[in-house]
Amino acid sequence: MQEIIDFISNHLIISSIWLFLLISLLVISINKSFSKIKIIECNEVIELMNKQDAIIIDLRPYQEYCKGHILGSINLVIDDIKKKNFNILEKYKIKPVILICTNAQNAFSISSYFTKNNFNKVYALKDGIANWNNKHLPLIIDKK
User: Which residues, including other chains, have CB under 8 Å from residue 55's CB and lie 6 or more apart?
Assistant: First the structure.
């Protein structure tokens, strides 16, 4: 035990950084365990679409959405969701809602708007549309 105390006192900066990283990791893990959103893989997206008639919300800008999106997905920009302008989705509250963005960061952060508005089954595609694309799954391209 004395060796640990000596190491910490001799390497205060490294020890502080290590402690910060450990606490950060614990906070992230705790937040994920209490989160109402589930991160899912591509095969789970397909299963939810086929078996539970899930709705897919694509959070990317319209230009990116037109370059390739999942069949049947609805394009909603994050600003509209933050302003609670998603009345079009009211009829989908009882269905699974899958949020998709470029790399899953926006989907995870915006999910709280859905859970606070009584959407019970909210999911996010792990690694976003990039994951879907890397698995060579089909995308619809709007030609305009």
Answer: 72, 74, 89, 92, 95, 96, 97, 98
- Give dist(CA 58, CA 80) in Å, integer: 12
Cβ count within 10 A of residue 116: 10
Q: What tens digit of pLDDT does each residue of 27-58 get?
A: 877 766 666 788 899 999 999 999 999 999 99
pTM attached to this predicted model: 0.75
State how far the Cα of 112 lies from the Cα of 127, in Å rounded to an integer: 18
The token pair that represents 84 in the structure block: 């609670």
Tokens of 52: 């539970």
Question: What is the spatial distance between Cα 98 and Cα 128, in angstroms, rounded to a whole number?
Answer: 10
